[in-house]
Amino acid sequence: MRTVRRLIWGLVAGILAGAGATPGPASTTPTVAPGVAASIAQARLATAKYATDLERAKADGYDIITPMIPNMGYHFLNPTVQGFDVTKPPILVYVRQGARWQLVALEWVYTERPVRAPLPGARYGAFGAACHYTDGTFIAAASQAQCATTNPRTGAGFTFWHPPLVTLHLWVWYPNPDGVFAEFNPLLTPFNE
């Protein structure tokens, strides 16, 4: 039991340390920017039902929009989720091993960088303009007019196009040594295809 407790506290400390934490002067427990730890807890509670249940996420409206992006994961989008709410992410990011899927991160996207960060210390990534298809594949394209009705490589039907995007990841289900807001996670290398 003590070993399990140490493992859990080690995982929590790793997640919090990745949030930009620094150890306190008289403590080995990391601290995070005000509000970030509470937001991480809220996000985990709200998305726990999806942690190892991709079918539940799909039933709730999340559909695949990318193949496995190295050191990031498969992205599943719920197009009905709008704006920033840490408990309702529009994108769930998964990895898989065989038939088992594991939620690793949550993601929000913007057409331009937010004037005010939705969470203290937020860092952003980028995703170029692209045509997306029903099988999760995508092809870079500067405009929707350049999107074929079916993907020429896979035959999958066109679903949507988006302009260049600013991305915000929140690694709440898998530790990331580069921080909870990092775009990529080097610990996911074993899951890359």
For the biggest β-sheet, the strand order reads 3-4-5-6-11-7
Low-confidence spans = 1-31
Q: Percent helix among the residues?
A: 10-25%
Describe the main β-sheet briefly: 6 strands, antiparallel
User: How much β-strand is present in the residues?
Assistant: 25-35%
In whole angstroms, how far apart are the ends? Answer: 36 Å
Gross morphology is: globular
Number of strands: 11
Structure notes:
It contains 3 helices and 11 strands, in the order αββααβββββββββ. With 193 residues, it is an alpha+beta fold. The protein has one domain (2-128, 164-191). Strands 3-4-5-6-11-7 form a 6-stranded antiparallel beta sheet. The protein is globular, with a radius of gyration of 17 Å. The model is unreliable at 1-31 (pLDDT under 50).
Short characterization:
This protein has 3 helices and 11 strands, in the order αββααβββββββββ. It is an alpha+beta fold. The protein has one domain.
